Amino acid sequence: MKRVKPMKASGLSIKPTVLKLGGSVITHKDKPLKANLPAIRRLAEEIAEAKIPQLIVVHGGGSFGHTMAKEYAIKEGFRGEASQLLGFTKTHQAMITLNNMVLETLIQHNIPVMAIAPSSFIISKSDRIANMTYKPLKRLLDIGAVPLLYGDAVLDSDKGFTILSGDQLVASLAIYFDARRIVVSIDEDGLFTADPKKPGRPDFISKCTLRKLRKLQRQIKSTNTCDVTGGMQGKISELIPAIEAGIPTLIVNGTISRRIYKALKGEKVTGTLIQKE
Ligand code: IPE
Q1: β-pair type (160-164, 249-253)
Q2: Which residue has the higher pLDDT, 195 or 101?
Q3: Which atom in ligand 1 lies closest to the alpha carbon of residue 29?
Q4: Which of 197, 183, 188, 195 is nearest to 274 (CA)?
Q5: 148-156 mean pLDDT
C-alpha cells in the first residue's frame, strides 16, 4: 500500500535550510556600531556559491543591536520612560542599519533576498514568540526567494517590548518549516567543554546529542558582557526546541573562510553537529 506522507506545517516540497549569521561574525563585537564588511562580503560569496534551493537567513545583532539594547535596557521591558521608548526605536533602527548592509551585499551577489523586519510580524509574550504569521515567508520560499530576518526589538504583550534573539527566531522558523538543517555561525569553531575564551584548553566537541548538550549547558558560561540574549548559554537554550524536533543543528566558525559554504552543502566541516540522538 502506498504510504501518504504527513503534511508538514509548511507544505514546502523541499525542506529549507535555516542559516544564522552570528553578530560576532558580521560585526566587530567590541566596537559599537561597526560592521565587519569584508566578512559580510565573504559570507555572501559563500552563500551564493552554495546555491541552496530553499534558504532562510537570519542574522544577529552584534555591536549594533546588543549595544543599543543594553544601553536602554530593552530586554527588561518598558518602564514607561520616554527615553527608553526612544531606545526601543533606536535599537530597531540599529538593526535595520546592519540589515541593510547584509541585504545590499547579498543582492550584489545575486541572491534574491527579501528583508522582513521581525518586529513587523511578531509579538512576543514574556520574551517568547507568541504571535507570528508565517504566510509571507512561505510565499517567498515558494517563489524561490530568500527571506532575510534578524534578531530585533519587538513588542511584547506582557513587557511592552523586549529583545527577540536571532536564535529563537531560527529555531521557530526551522520547526515550522521542518528544516533540513540549521547552520549557526559564531566566532568559535563550535562547542567546547568549557569557555574557549577563558584560559585553559577545553576539549572540542564535534558531535553532540541532546542529552550531552544539556549536561554541557550547565558548564558553558558566556564571557561576553555585551550580549543581552545570554551568550552561548542563551544560544543553546534557544536551539534546543529545534533539535528536539529532530532538526540537525551545526555550529560552525563563520569567521573562517569556506566553513559556511561547506556547512550549507552538507560537506565535512569543522564544527559541532548537534542531533537529537
Ligand atoms: C540580538 O540577536 C538582536 C538584538 C540585540 C536587537 P542575537 O542575540 O541573535 O545576536 P548575536 O548573534 O548574539 O549577536
Answers
A1: unpaired
A2: 101
A3: 14
A4: 183
A5: 98
Q: Which atom of ligand 1 is nearest to the CA of 153?
A: 6
C-alpha Rg value of the chain to the nearest Å: 18
CA of 153 to the centre of ligand 1 (A): 10
Q: Which atom of ligand 1 is nearest to the CA of 166?
A: 9
User: What's the CA gap between 172 and 60, in Å, rounded?
Assistant: 15
What is the distance between the alpha carbons of residues 274 and 271, in angstroms, rounded to a whole number? Answer: 10
Site to probe by mutation for ligand 1, drawn from 182, 186, 229, 236 as the one with most ligand atoms within 8 Å of Cβ, is: 229
Residue of 19, 75, 71, 28 lying closest to 234 (CA atoms): 75
Taking the alpha carbons of 26, 59, 192, 257 in that order, is the dihedral positive or negative?
A: negative
Taking the mean position of all CA atoms in its chain, how far away is CA 71? 22
Q: What is the pLDDT of residue 194?
A: 80
Probe residue for ligand 1, chosen from 29, 40, 66, 173 as the CB with the greatest number of ligand atoms within 8 Å:
66
Residue 53 CA to residue 78 CA, distance in Å, equals 41
How is residue 262 annotated by DSSP? H
- If you average pLDDT over every residue of the chain, what do you get? 92
pTM to 2 decimal places:
0.93
Alpha helices in 109-185 (DSSP H): 135-142, 166-176
- Give ligand 1 pocket residues (Cβ under 6 A): 22-24, 60-62, 65-66, 69, 91, 95, 151-153, 163, 165-167, 227-229
Q: Which residues contact 19 (CB under 8 A, 6 or more apart)?
A: 47, 55, 56, 57, 58, 182, 183, 185, 260, 264
